[in-house]
Specification:
With 297 residues, the protein is of the alpha/beta class. It has helices spanning 35-44, 46-54, 73-82, 95-101, 141-149, 175-193, 206-212, 233-248, 258-267, and strands at residues 14-16, 63-67, 87-92, 109-113, 126-132, 152-163, 216-227, 284-294. It is globular.
């Protein structure tokens, strides 16, 4: 297996190539950092992400690219699937994400800081492109898939993963409040990024994008991330920090009636008797959908 680093033995490391300051659809730049949320999600959903990788039936000796690798936990799981003799490369726009991803590296793996639309790799050099929770950040997802497809050998595959293809359910005991909170979150993000709701439709479009990009043998599989008490520490950390504090919290104050915001605040407060994660009827559902397309000979 020839290393992606010409003239050098395969080893772990990082490079910064062709970075851009242009913001993506959701505000991504080289300086943006949401590494904590990425790390929390990867730890929380590790079991389901590993199942998704296993479903690809990767072979030893394959070369895989993690496009939008974030904090890099998945690099190690992909590497395990293509060893011995394989190689895994990660690419991410954010400097902070790349720095953290390097901690998860072991030979033969690399991380490159670059815009995936201008990835510094030769054509037809990968067997798999793994791209999870990334396509919906691009202003033109179809352009993104077509660009990534040029990096694949004939018979190579793009695996597009997306969490929350269907609305999440957090409140098994109160569908009304659940509906109001989910809509408030969507309204907040539309306002934050000055987007029309139609501009966020790409979160559901992976199957269609693969087909419009000319990929063949398109398949799709949805895994359910389901959690009930007792929760693991990784479950609690993700739900409390990434959902209760970072997705909800004070940012929803202006998007909910005062009475409903007060009730939500109680559900998110570990000190309150109604804290959601302490309830015996807490039931969390989140989907993870993997759409796979193949570059036909």
């Amino acid at each position: 297996m020839t290393s992606m680093q010409p003239g050098r033995a395969a080893s772990s490391g990082s490079r910064s190539v062709g970075t851009t300051r242009a913001a993506g659809l959701l505000g991504d730049t080289t300086a943006r950092d949401y590494s904590q949320k990425l790390t929390l999600f990867n730890s929380f959903a590790e079991r389901e992400l590993r199942q998704a990788i296993a479903s690809l039936d990767l072979k030893p000796g394959m070369r895989a690219l993690d496009a939008g690798c974030g904090t890099g936990e998945v690099l190690a799981w992909l590497r395990d699937a293509v060893m011995p003799g394989g190689e895994v490369i990660g690419i991410d726009l954010a400097r902070a994400h790349v720095a953290i991803a390097c901690r998860h590296l072991a030979a033969p793996a690399w991380v490159v800081q670059a815009d995936l639309l201008r990835a510094p790799f030769p054509p037809t050099c990968f067997d798999l492109v793994w791209c999870v929770n990334t396509l919906n950040h691009l202003r033109d997802p179809l352009e993104g898939v077509r660009t990534l497809a040029t990096l694949l050998r004939p018979g190579g595959r793009i695996a597009l993963g997306q969490s929350s293809l269907l609305p999440d359910m957090y409140f098994a005991w109160d569908a009304r409040l659940e509906r109001l909170v989910n809509e408030a979150v969507r309204r907040y993000y539309r306002d934050r990024y000055d987007l029309d709701e139609r501009e966020l439709a790409s979160v559901r479009s992976n199957v269609g994008v693969l087909r419009r990009a000319g990929l063949g043998n398109v398949t799709v599989r949805t895994l359910m991330i389901e959690r009930v008490p007792p929760l693991t520490p990784a479950d609690e950390a993700y739900l409390l920090q990434a959902i209760f504090r970072d997705s909800w919290g004070d940012r929803l104050r202006d998007y909910l009636p005062a009475e409903d915001f007060a009730e939500l605040t109680c559900l998110c407060d570990p000190r309150h008797p109604d804290f959601a994660l302490g309830r015996p009827d807490f039931h969390f559902l989140q989907t993870f959908t993997l759409a796979v397309g193949e570059v036909l000979p």
